[in-house]
């Protein structure tokens, strides 16, 4: 199961599966040789048993969520900042306080957080959830599964990819809908992922 995928600015995406992670090379469109590896061997201070969701901000930090906690990961230093984990409720105004299924950062200054059959739109500059949320996934994300997403990541090609179980969907950001022909098996579109 693919959880907490994040796209780094080095041409790599990192995807998690339980206590392991995969490094995915965007240009060659496949998992790098030698993966999976244990989270404990490559992510100092990160949750070692699993990460539920992850987002990368433009401030050089990535944020990873598990249960009711989150950590702030310093990308340049390649480790979790001191003082983490912290409760989600203490650092994310208005956000779900536990069990975030996945999250994606859109190119509109917003991040979207999903839990169960609902989602929230988070204003990055304002550092808070926009008014009127949570809302149902159904009707707002045409063609997307309406509940229980495992992972989501935005590529630099105008597409977002969402994962659930052994399948994935490609979401066209400009068209605001899932592309035709999805869901598809992860094994057919993501070489080397579980």
Q: Report low-confidence residues grouped into runs of 5 or more.
A: none
User: How many domains, in number, for the residues?
Assistant: 1
Question: For the residues shown, what is the average pLDDT?
Answer: 95
Number of E-state strands: 20
* Structural class by secondary-structure content: mainly beta
- What CATH first level would be assigned? Mainly Beta
Q: Portion of residues in helices?
A: under 10%
CATH architecture: 4 Propeller
Report the β-strand fraction as a percent range.
35-45%
CATH fold call: Hemopexin
Distance between the termini: 6 Å
Biggest sheet descriptor: 5 strands, antiparallel
| Rg measurement, Å | 16 Å
How are helices and strands ordered from N to C? Answer: EEEEEHEEEEEHEEEEEEEEEEH
Basic shape: globular
How many helices? Answer: 3
Question: How would you characterize this protein structure?
Answer:
The protein has one domain (3-189): Hemopexin (4 Propeller). 6% of the residues lie in helices and 42% in strands. The chain has 3 helices and 20 strands. It has helices at 39-42, 88-91, 186-189; strands spanning 3-7, 12-17, 20-25, 30-31, 37-38, 53-56, 61-66, 69-74, 79-80, 86-87, 102-105, 110-115, 118-123, 128-129, 135-136, 151-154, 159-164, 167-172, 177-178, 184-185. The strands form 4 sheets. Strands 1, 2, 3, 4 and 5 form a 5-stranded antiparallel beta sheet that branches. Strands 6, 7, 8, 9 and 10 form a 5-stranded antiparallel beta sheet that branches. Strands 11, 12, 13, 14 and 15 form a 5-stranded antiparallel beta sheet that branches. Strand 16 (151-154) and strand 17 form a beta hairpin. The radius of gyration is 16 Å and the shape is globular. The mean pLDDT is 95.
């Amino acid at each position: 199961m693919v959880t907490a995928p994040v796209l780094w600015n080095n041409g790599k995406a990192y995807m998690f599966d339980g206590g392991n992670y995969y490094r995915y090379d965007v240009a060659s469109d496949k998992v790098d040789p030698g993966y999976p590896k244990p989270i404990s061997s490559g992510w100092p201070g990160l949750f070692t048993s699993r990460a539920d969701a992850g987002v990368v901000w433009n401030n050089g930090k990535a944020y990873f969520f598990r249960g009711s906690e989150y950590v702030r990961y310093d990308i340049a230093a390649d480790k979790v900042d001191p003082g983490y984990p912290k409760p989600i409720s203490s650092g994310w105004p208005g956000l779900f306080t536990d069990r975030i299924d996945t999250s994606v950062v859109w190119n509109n200054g917003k991040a979207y957080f999903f839990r169960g059959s609902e989602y929230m739109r988070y204003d990055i500059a304002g550092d808070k959830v926009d008014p009127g949320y949570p809302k149902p996934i159904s009707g707002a994300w045409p063609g997307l599964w309406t509940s229980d997403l495992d992972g989501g990541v935005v590529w630099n090609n105008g597409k977002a990819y969402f994962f659930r179980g052994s399948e994935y969907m490609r979401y066209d950001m400009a068209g605001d809908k899932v592309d035709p022909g999805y869901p598809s098996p992860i094994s057919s579109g993501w070489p080397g992922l579980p």
